[in-house]
Structures are given as C-alpha cells and as structure tokens.
UniProtKB/TrEMBL annotation, chain A:
Belongs to the ABC-3 integral membrane protein family. It comes from Thioclava atlantica. It is a multi-pass membrane protein. This is High-affinity zinc uptake system membrane protein ZnuB. GO terms for cellular component: ATP-binding cassette (ABC) transporter complex.
TrEMBL record, chain B:
Keywords: ATP-binding, Cell membrane, Ion transport, Membrane, Nucleotide-binding, Translocase, Transport, Zinc, Zinc transport. Residues 5-220 form the ABC transporter domain. Residues 236-255 are annotated as: Disordered. CDD domains: ABC_Metallic_Cations. SMART domains: AAA. One of its GO terms (biological process) is zinc ion transport. GO terms for molecular function: ATP binding; ATP hydrolysis activity. It comes from Thioclava atlantica. InterPro entries: AAA+_ATPase (IPR003593), ABC_transporter-like_ATP-bd (IPR003439), ABC_transporter-like_CS (IPR017871), Metal_Ion_Import_ABC (IPR050153), P-loop_NTPase (IPR027417). This is Zinc ABC transporter ATP-binding protein ZnuC. Gene3D superfamilies: P-loop containing nucleotide triphosphate hydrolases (3.40.50.300).
Length: 261, 255
C-alpha cells in the first residue's frame, strides 16, 4: 500500500504544479525557456552558499535565483544578443554552482538530490513551504494577470493602457525565483525548467484561452506527478525524472488534440 | 491650451546613438497630427517616448493626468503558443462586457469575429480588431503607429476613412505615424516631418511644399510613393514653414 512518504511526495508535487502551470504558460508565451534555465541553474549555487553559511536552503536558493533572474531581466531590457548571453549565464551558473558545491563535504555526497530532486524525502515542513510558496506565486500572477497578459502581447499596448511592462516583467521574475526556490527539493535544479515548459506545451494543444491553458497546464502537471510517482514506485526509477518523463508522454499524447479555430 | 501630450526639448538615446533630439511637440484636444519620416527617422521611438516607454535623455514629456490613450500598434505578433480569442483580447487589460465588445466590433466592421482566434485573422481584420480594442477604452487620443502596414491600398483607404468617422463621433485626438503620405496628409490638421529631429511642420499643404520635406521624400507626384534615396547633406536655402531650422549635418542615404 502507499506509504506516508508517497502521499507527502504527491502533495508536494501537486502543490508545485499550481505555480508551474500558470507560470510555465507565461514562460512559453514569452519564449523565456532559457530564462527559466538560467534561474534554475543558479539555484545550485544557492544551495552551495546555503551549506557554506549554514542558512536555510530555501532562502539561499531564493536569494541567488532572484539575483540571477533580475540580472537576466535587466540585460534583456537592453537588447543584448539575448540567446548567447542567456546561454552563458545558464551554463556558467551551473558550473560555478557545482564547483562551489564541491567545497562542501556535506553536499558532495547528496548532490544529485539537488540536481534531480528528491521528492520522496519531502518532510511535512517542506510541504508547508511548497504550498505557501505556490500560493504566493499564484496570488502574484492572479493579481497582475491582466497587465501581464497585455504586456506579453505587446509592450506599447500595455504601456498605453497604464500597465508598465517593466513592472509586469518584475512580477514574473519574482514569481520565477520563488518557484525555483520551492521546487529545488522536489524536482531539482536541472528539471525545474522541464516542469515549467512541458505541461504548458501539452495544455496548449487543447486550450482556447490563456486561462484555460494555465489551468490545463496545472492539470497536466498533476497527472504527470501522479503518473511519475506511480512509475517510480512500481519500477524503482528516480522520482523527479519519472515525473518529467510522464509529463513528456502526456505532451506527446496531446499532440493529436490540436484544435483550430 | 489643453495639450493632451507635449514634449519640450526631448532627446532619446539608444546606447551611443541619439535617435531623437530637441523635439518640441504638442497635440491638443480634437487635433489630427501626422508624423511622417523615412525608416529609421525615430517615428516609433517618438511614440514610445510619448506614451512613457522610452526614457528621455534630455527634455521632458508631459501627459495630461488620467489621459486615456487608445493605441493601435504597427504590427502585433501574437505568439502561436498563446491561445487568445478576439473577445478575450478586447478585455485586455480592462474587462469589458459582451455588449460593449460586440458594439465595438460592429463599429469597426468586424462583428462576428469575436470567437475567432487572434492568430487566424487576416491583416485587415486584425487592424480593425485593434481599433475596436482601442475604442473600448473611450480614448482621449488615438495613437496609430503605422497602423496600415501590411494593408493593400483599398484596405488602407478604408481604414483611414473609418478613423475619420470614429474621430468625428468621439471627438478624440488622433496622432498618426505613417509614410502613407498621400492618404494621411489630406486628413491631418498638422503634419510633422521627422528625421531624428523635427525637420518642418505645418498644415499638409505647407509641409508638402517645404524644401525639407521634398528633400526627404522627393518631389512626390500626386498619390505616388516617393522613394527616397538621397544624400542628406543639403543646406536649406529658403525659410520653410513655421519651424525654420533644419540643419542636416549628418549624411546618410535611405533606400
């Protein structure tokens, strides 16, 4: 029968998808995939710094992810060749994070847990953090929803109707950093971006409105968490990658659902 | 004087490049003002500065408090990953009722498109939907940034006719940015010829005869587009319009 740890894992994963559904939709709409990568990879550096200074891992990753996200957002506002700059930032953040982690003897052993997540080790305290973080992300996105959507379509259109696109971008940046911070224990730094993009891409196939797609992405995410955990339990595979693999299977299954209108 | 938007001594820089310099601009209630200029003359930058999206390197921009702007952009690329119906689009960012949305679509001649996905509209339909959305904000001023790009000539003429009707009904000011000279100019109260700075301005007739304008656009036979390929280091001999100085110390050519 299912054990407590499996139920906690499922609850943690489900809580996270409430944030990753709508946020992932924005990542897809705004073509921010690399942006998500850079922010998520920076989280490893955050983990290493947390171990070095003995602070909470959540706070450490939140701080570093926020710093990275703000840097990227600032650079993109200046019209640099973004693709290259983001590539450099995403990969170097990971490399520096891994180097920093190697100095922490306590981290060396369990590093893969931070890279790929360890959803089965989620504690009750972690559950509270995940659900609180996800709730904050959902509240932030719901609050800015209309302006964010307008700015996603066109900066001038948003500005002319009194919504400063830079402010909307900031809200999205904070939401992304917050999501990365609460997701790192569950799916790990390398798979966070996948959890943002894959369910949203699947939901696109059968959605006719932005809200429908955001909700659909959460629905696909929940299904992926449950399927992934079941597969992990049944076939003894690593949980985080199994969840992402399940999401990918759902994406492929969604392809024939493409609706035209 | 009830200026809706004005700029004094406005300069805008992009990095090391000064895109606009020493712009004095004002548009007041009910006016139709058209900004014309070649590609790269800073037309779109001027619009972005006037709505507050482009910081001023020098000078300042003033907008009337609580000014409602109806903005119709040059081109709008809605990413294919975003599912968005026309009806939903009209409620961005301010939600409107179904009745309001329907009335606006009817006014711009595209009723019946409400359920259609934005990505599947033709260019002409999309421009009319954009105008409908702009009208829903009950604007004090309509800003049209190359709004007819991608429309054919009858489509352009019909669109401008619609703008004139709407303006007559609502009394909104209209600020147009364009290079559709022959259509735009006849409808405008005032034309501003822009090329990094205000080259000349005045009534359409005055500007059309100003040497600065002709230097930028060629002599332009009636109704035809003037293609401008010229060296730009001429000196203006005569006093043109109400705006006299137009020094072209820079030299470049446009195709």
């Amino acid at each position: 029968m299912f054990d407590d740890f499996l139920i906690r894992a499922a609850l943690a994963g489900i809580g996270l998808t409430f944030a990753t559904g709508p946020l992932g939709s924005f990542v897809v709409w705004r073509r921010m995939a690399y942006f998500g990568d850079a922010t998520a990879h920076a989280a490893i550096l955050g983990v290493a710094l947390s171990f070095a200074f003995g602070t909470s891992v959540y706070l450490g990753t939140l701080g570093v992810a926020l710093a990275m996200a703000l840097t990227v957002a600032r650079l993109s506002g200046r019209g640099h060749a973004m693709d290259t700059v983001l590539g450099v930032l995403a990969h170097s953040a990971l490399a520096f994070g891994l180097v920093a982690a190697s100095f922490q003897s306590g981290l060396r052993v369990g590093l893969s847990a931070w890279l790929f997540g360890d959803i089965l080790a989620v504690s009750q305290a972690d559950l509270v953090v995940v659900w609180a973080g996800a709730a904050a992300v959902v509240a932030l996105l719901a609050w800015r929803w209309q302006g964010l959507l307008t700015a996603t379509i066109n900066d001038e259109l948003a500005m002319a109707s009194g919504h400063d696109p830079r402010r909307e971008q900031l809200a999205l940046t904070i939401a992304l950093a917050l999501t990365v911070a609460v997701a790192i224990k569950i799916v790990g730094a390398l798979l966070i971006a996948a959890l943002l993009i894959v369910p949203a891409a699947a939901a696109r196939q059968f959605s006719r409105s932005p809200e429908g797609m955001a909700a659909g992405a959460t629905g696909v995410g929940i299904l992926a968490v449950l399927l992934g955990l079941w597969g992990s339990f049944r076939f003894d595979t690593p949980a985080g990658p199994s969840v992402v693999a399940a999401a990918t299977v759902l994406f492929v299954l969604s392809l024939p659902l493409r609706r035209r209108g | 004087m009830s200026d809706l938007i004005s700029a004094q001594g406005l300069s805008v820089r992009h990095g090391d490049t000064e895109v606009l310099h020493d712009i004095d601009f004002a548009i007041s209630t009910g006016e139709i003002v058209t900004v014309v200029g070649p590609n790269g003359s800073g037309k779109s930058t001027l619009v972005r500065a006037l709505i507050g999206l482009e910081p001023a390197a020098r000078g300042k921009v003033h907008r009337k408090p609580k000014l409602r702007i109806g903005y119709v952009p040059q081109k709008l690329h809605v990413d294919a990953s975003l599912p968005l119906s026309v009806r939903r689009f009209l409620s961005l960012p301010r939600r409107v009722s179904d009745a309001q949305a329907q009335a606006a679509l009817e006014r711009t001649g595209v009723s019946g498109l409400g359920a259609r996905q934005i990505a599947r509209l033709s260019g002409g339909q999309f421009q009319r939907v954009l105008l409908a959305r702009a009208l829903l904000s009950e604007p004090d001023i309509l800003i049209l940034d190359e709004a007819t790009q991608g429309l054919d000539q009858p489509g352009t003429a019909a669109f401008y006719k619609l703008i004139e009707e709407v303006r007559a009904e609502t009394g909104a000011s209209v600020l147009m940015v364009s290079h559709d000279l022959h259509v735009v100019m006849s409808a405008s109260d005032r034309v501003i010829c822009l090329n990094g700075h205000v080259c000349c301005q005045g009534t359409p007739k005055v500007v059309a005869e100003a040497p600065e304008y002709r230097a930028l656009f060629g002599m332009g036979t009636q109704g035809a587009f003037a293609l401008y390929q010229h060296d730009h280091d001429h000196v203006h001999g005569t006093e043109p319009s109400d705006h006299a100085t137009c020094s072209h110390e820079h030299s470049h050519s446009h195709v």
